[in-house]
């Protein structure tokens, strides 16, 4: 075998073949210079001849020339070539100030993170994904807008039941491809079946007092503080409907909203018990107190047992805290009295939904006594 075929140092520099046209053998990874490469790819603005590099050069040249008075107001539809950071289709912020008539016509807000609605706000439709969850939601009469069925999925008894339940309740049944189902459900495991739940129409806290006045009854309202599990909200709504409460108040932030999970846990009680949303729970409780309603907080540190609550025969708001932290400090200070549920073991604790059911039962029992006012 010739010397040219085995030598890695002879021959033309940078050539991948020998003079005879045979592949030149490598170094086996032992040559440092052979492994250095050209380094990382430079940014587009630093590549000679790239459009981004030409825009950056034009921007640098434009920044050195003196600005004229008419530069601050570019003509309508004109893009600023001296702004390399602006992406395609994005206008400069000074265009809005130069043309206030666009905002006066109600232009669409920018699609940034600040323009998106917060998650869990209840204003966007919710999707239930999966065959078993969809069937259970339809069985629980969760208000739904549409049922999406995959176009190329193998039908079984769950899909057939879901289609039948949706048709019986007047829910539209639509076909959707796998990509569309992935987009609607956010990549969840949908198994070819998804249910779009209608956004819940929250009431105002004052509407609950009006509901009690229309019924000619003493107001009984349940407020939730720091409860983030929608299933607890559904369980509380179920107990509220069973013991004559006129509604449930939840905070707008850091609190559970009415979702498909809440509907299923309520067993349909959310269709009868309204849920109001409060921007600030402490202020809402203060407004109830101004209207002559007493506020009782359910807390493990309360001195009064709930069965001895004398305020139960008066207009009452019962505040339920989370299982772990209980009532927040500012909400506990807003209460007229703190009551507790006697528990045999000190280490035991009750779920928020269970505690609400016990407290509401005790209040209903006190109000049903003969000496209690109507």
What summary fits the major beta sheet?
Answer: 7 strands, parallel
| Global shape | elongated
Q: Mind telling me the C-alpha Rg? A: 34 Å
Helix content: 25-40%
Distance between the termini: 112 Å
Q: Tally of extended strands?
A: 11
Q: Give the helix tally.
A: 13
- Give the SSE string: HHHHEHEHEHEHEHEHEHEEEHEH
Percent of residues in beta strands? Answer: 5-15%
The mean pLDDT is 77
Strand order of the largest sheet: 7-6-5-10-8-11-9
Helix and strand composition category: alpha/beta
State the low-pLDDT regions, or none. 1-12, 67-124
Commentary on this structure:
The longest helix is centred in the C-terminal third of the chain and has 16 residues, at 352-367. This protein has helices spanning 3-6, 51-64, 93-98, 100-104, 131-139, 157-168, 178-185, 205-215, 230-242, 260-266, 281-290, 329-334, 352-367, and strands at residues 126-129, 144-150, 172-176, 193-197, 220-225, 248-251, 275-278, 294-298, 304-305, 316-321, 337-340. The protein starts with a helix and ends in a 7-residue tail after the last helix. It is of the alpha/beta class and 374 residues long. Residues 1-12 and 67-124 have low confidence and may be disordered. Strands 7-6-5-10-8-11-9 form a seven-stranded parallel β-sheet. It has a four-stranded mixed β-sheet with strand order 1-4-2-3. It contains 13 helices and eleven strands. The relative contact order is 0.08. The radius of gyration is 34 Å and the shape is elongated.
